[in-house]
Amino acid sequence: MNRRAFLMSSGAGMIIAGSPLAWAQASARPLPLIPMTDLTAGISERISLTLQSGAHDFGNGAKSTTLGINQSYLGPVIKAKQGQDLPFDVTNATGETSTLHWHGLHIPGDVDGGPHQEIEPGAVWTPDVPLVQHASMNWFHSHMHGRTAQQTYNGLAGVLLVEDDSSLAADLPKTYGVDDFTLVLQDKMFGADGKMAYELSAAVFEDGFEGDTLVVNGAIAPVSQTVPTGLVRLRILNACNARFLELSMATGPVTVIASDGGFLASPVEAESLLMSPGERYEVLVDMGSADMNALNVNLDGGGGNGFFANLFGGNQKVTALTLQRSGDKGFTGSMPTKLANMEPPKQSDATVTRSFQLEMDVGADLAALALAWDNFCGDAGAMAINGQPMKMDRIDEEVRKGDTENWRISVDDQLHPFHIHGCSFRILSQNGAPPPAYAAGWKDMVHVDEGWSEVLVKFDYEATKDAPYMYHCHILEHEDCGMMGQFTVT
Ligand SMILES: [Cu+2]
Fold first, then answer.
1. Given Cys at both, which of 88, 91, 139, 161 links 79, Cβ 3.0 to 4.6 Å?
2. How many other CB atoms are there within 10 angstroms of residue 123's CB atom?
């Protein structure tokens, strides 16, 4: 038995002794509708976001200790429009230092909200965030170095939808809470008292933290929603710390219309959709002919990246969301055939090539770290990229603004999701093969397993050495443990 297999089996044992699916229930709860702040009609005052402590009931009757943004758990859905400047006042009322990173936005490094823009307890961070990119689903979350995993797990995350003239005019469902829903998918562990738990161990450092219970918009799955006849739009974020989710529909294919950075050229039908932590996809569900459909999630979609691979042979499918058709008439348009203009990426456009090797183990004893660190990772350098664990005072790459570059990423171990700040990119290859059609559009996440994953990327905004961009694994425990690097764009 190699080291990794041992860690996985000992991890699985821990889960069995704990709470195996204890809080999963068959009866569906109503889908919580996340409050929306819609700014598309105009912005008249500064936008207040307060990072705060909370007590949240995930639906099992227990009040979990959580973090939230303007509420007890998670943040609002913010909807804004291309061309707007978003004047944020981010107040940190949590009592612990944090940051708020705008994941997916094409913005300068000094407003990116990465590890260098710390917000001390009681302080207010006031970035003016310019929205220049086209319609896309983005999100925001803590990026406090060494604490990102725990703070995001506890609830410091929200959704930021960018619209543009064509997306607002498009013949697509867009009535929030009626035929247009935002779904934040997460996996949680609940203790014997029913409260949300987060415990690190050597196995958790190795795989990242994985819970045994699926949560949708802060409610334990399955959840259900009544919808009108016609097309229904689901904007989905995988906000898990570490778990890859394989999505499928109970009936019919998954029809994907958008990925991280915007609309696909045209809808893509897939039997299933593999989402890494940090990824976003939009799908359309046709409720014109069926009374009922459901979004299912295979919790072990990553193929052996977690405990369920051992327990259930790599297939642990649960229902996330049941859609039930009412008699009401809803969106009357038909399935679109064209969504965006998109040329295939041309590798020959790249004038610079950079290579990144993700490394799981650079000599530190993960078990000792787990014991020593009181549930957070810190700048201890157990993991690395190109032999270098993340260091706040070291710039790893210097990029010239406007250059088209080819970034090649590889790893010798398990599946990792790689994220680059300040851009959207196109995937040239993923694990040595062309990406699935649903991942062929604008992305800021790429899966890295066996073989090279290559992306074609260009940066249009500045990031100086005092406010560099990050590239990192989006398994948050890996990121916190050093699988991250810093780069400038000038
Ligand atoms: Cu990783």
1. 161
2. 14
Decide if 9 is inside a domain. Answer: no
Q: For residue 353, how far is its CA from the centre of ligand 1 (angstroms)?
A: 22
**377 CA → ligand 1 middle, Å:** 14
Q: How far is the CA of 301 from the centre of ligand 1 (A)?
A: 16
* 116 close to 466: Cβ distance less than 8 angstroms: yes
CA of 475 to the centre of ligand 1 (A): 5
Q: Give the E-state strand segments of 61-110 in sequence order.
A: 64-69, 77-81, 85-93, 101-103
| Angle ∠(342,348,354) on CA atoms, nearest 5 | 105
One domain, residues 180 and 317: yes
Ligand 1: distance of its center to the CA of 318 in Å?
A: 25
Q: What is the pLDDT of residues 79-130, one digit of tens each?
A: 999 999 999 999 999 999 999 999 999 999 999 999 999 999 999 999 999 9
CB 111 within 8 A of CB 132: no
pTM of this structure = 0.92
- Do 157 and 178 lie in one domain? The reply is no
